[in-house]
Specification:
Layout (H helix, E strand, L loop, with lengths): L12 E5 L7 H12 L6 E5 L1 H11 L3 H12 L11 H11 L7 H11 L11 E7 L4 E5 L4 H8 L9 E3 L2 E4 L9 H6 L4 E5 L16 H20 L6 E4 L24 H17 L7
Parallel strand pairs: 1-2, 1-7, 2-3, 7-8
Antiparallel strand pairs: 3-4, 3-6, 5-6
Helix pairs in contact: 1-3, 1-9, 5-6
């Protein structure tokens, strides 16, 4: 599948949507604030759950897409995507040896909105990243079936199966590029809006339990890359990191990101991120174009 080389076109304004599991609901509130403020993207790039949010907005960059995303997120608590008892998940793990859930239900959910569309046919240019297993490198999807690309970008290790496309296999894009600001800038963006899930808003704390150790290590790696890309930006690039408005979701404990089946606070996260981002955007100097 092509997609590793950056194509020639330049895109002035980009939305960059990071990964973060259920915390990705924050991004829905941010999208609502952006679109209500009349800010439309020329390019959307995303990782993992951010790729899913971004693809739906790329398909329909209007408030209607945000309404649909809100419905999807608020319905996740009763969704079959991650359904199943502990025993059922244990059986799936025993059978697969590598994951707890099939991606069949997630594929069906995505197809219901994207209807077999291709990346190159979306209303707004869109790209998403996945971790290539054979290449041990990031792989950018710039064309082809959008649902296949989204499943690859959101294939959380141990939770969902690796996705095979052609003769290659892919895992969650957050492993290699969790908040891909650099990709947007490489493609020509000079005004970048970063939609993130809150984990960059507070200092990281040392692990307190054995299972937090690898999560803290991963968080250090993802934050380091994001900070490095921000520090390396050209002088003519403006980046806006939108706030979530949810201090308790930042990083009080890395184990929280594993609660992928807890959708009880989805509406609260959407509303808080919307309010905080709307305030942030309203305080910006008047924009032109």
């Amino acid at each position: 599948m092509p997609g590793n080389a950056a194509p020639a076109p330049s895109f002035r304004r980009a939305f960059v949507l990071g990964g973060g599991g259920y915390l990705g609901a924050h991004e829905v509130g941010m999208l609502k604030a952006l679109l209500e403020a009349g800010i439309r993207p020329d390019l959307v790039v995303g990782t993992s759950v951010g790729a899913i949010n971004g693809a739906l907005v790329s398909a329909d960059p209007t408030p209607a897409a945000v309404d649909r995303l809100t419905e999807v997120w608020t319905g996740l608590a009763s969704s079959a995507v991650f359904a199943g008892s502990v025993l059922q998940r244990a059986r799936t793990a025993a059978r697969s040896r590598t994951y707890l859930h099939s991606n069949t239900q997630l594929r069906a959910l995505l197809e219901a909105d994207l209807h077999g569309r291709r990346i190159e046919d979306l209303a707004v240019p869109f790209q998403c990243v996945a971790a290539g297993i054979e290449s041990a490198a990031e792989h950018w999807f710039t064309e082809g079936p959008v649902v296949d690309a989204l499943l690859a970008s959101s294939a959380v290790p141990g939770l969902l199966p690796a996705v095979r496309i052609g003769d290659r296999h892919y895992l969650d894009g957050g492993l290699v590029n969790s908040i891909p600001v650099g990709r947007a800038v490489t493609l020509g963006a000079r005004e970048v809006y970063v939609l993130q899930v809150g984990r960059v808003e507070k200092p990281l704390r040392p692990a307190r339990r054995p299972w937090e150790v690898p999560l803290v290590a991963f968080e250090i790696a993802r934050r380091h890359r994001f900070a490095r890309e921000l520090s390396d930006l050209p002088a003519d690039v403006t980046v806006h990191v939108l706030p979530t408005g949810s201090a308790d979701d930042a990083v009080p404990g890395p184990i929280g990101q594993l609660r992928y089946r807890d959708a009880e606070r989805v509406t609260e996260r959407i509303d808080r991120a919307y309010a905080a981002s709307a305030r942030y955007l309203a305080a910006l100097p008047a924009r032109h174009g």
